[in-house]
Task: structure prediction
Amino acid sequence: MSALAARADDGSHWGPMLERPLTNMATTHSWPHRHLLGIDGLSAADVGVVLERAETYLQLSRQREKKSATLRGRTLINLFLEDSTRTRGSFELAGKRLGADVVNVSSSGTSAAKGETLLDTARNLDAMRADIVVVRHGASGAPHMLAEHTGASVVNAGDGQHEHPTQALLDAFTIHRAKGKLAGLRVAICGDIYHSRVARSNALLLGLMKADVVLCGPRTMLPRDANVLGPTVTVTHRLAEAIEGADVVMMLRIQKERLGKAMMSTAREYSRTFGLGPRVLAAMKPDAIVMHPGPINRGVELEPTVADGPRSVVLDQVEAGVAVRMAVLDLVGNDGPGVMRREDAPASRSKGKRA
Result:
């Protein structure tokens, strides 16, 4: 059966066997964070709050009328100082569906490209009275620095090799809908682990939710200190060992833009050793799902027949991305501590506190 044939009739991406809505994950828990800077620092209950609210927004997104007034009158600035398609597009769509005024700022043509420091950018954004700033930056820790110098709530959309929290949350959402749980699952994450903020955030979140995580890749693309990601994380250099008994196999691309030196011989050799094709797929559990955060290098880490096959939930991840980011924007914009108390923002801005 093709991937399209397995899709539900209502236009959703999940097939009938994968439609397991999330409910009652964190009903009595309130969101305690003003920002979302990483998975590190979240509790399992925090994750449950995001996933449960994302379920509400997934259902809203499937309706003909997709708009909500949750963030009406609020200003959302998407500050993307690294290239992005899916993440930026889903944050823009999420903000608009929540009723926010959305401003997109990209790397080309910005003051940052002309030499403006991140601190000056933060102060200028604060002067514009933005309520939420979503930031993607090539430097690890940039969102944390921004959060210290602006009165807005800050959401990390990927910082260097550090974290990508909303990707991990949408991946967890997708897995839970496909499998009905997270605890006790075996999740194999394969590819360029060393440079991947997605791998780091997923390992932290899945470990937090009591899933077993195995990281797999060439020796030159695996971190030496993977054990710091949690007691449920293990490492292997063999793809066959990683996928054995796995409920979820998440493939990652080779991040050529971050490679400081040669870490593999050729793309063909990498594909032969660590690529997921029909032969490897046949050795996986019959009900295992295949994931990829995108963009996919077809024919390298994923063969087209696998990427487009019935066990692939790649498009489900894309759909989940909008719902999860709607949930995150709603939570930091409405439920987090200090929201609407802008006079409490840091006094380090140029001209002092706001009036």
User: Anything to note?
Assistant: The CA atoms of residues 252 and 293 lie 7 Å apart. The chain has eleven helices and nine strands. Strands lie at 75-80, 101-106, 132-137, 153-159, 186-190, 212-216, 233-236, 248-251, 289-291.
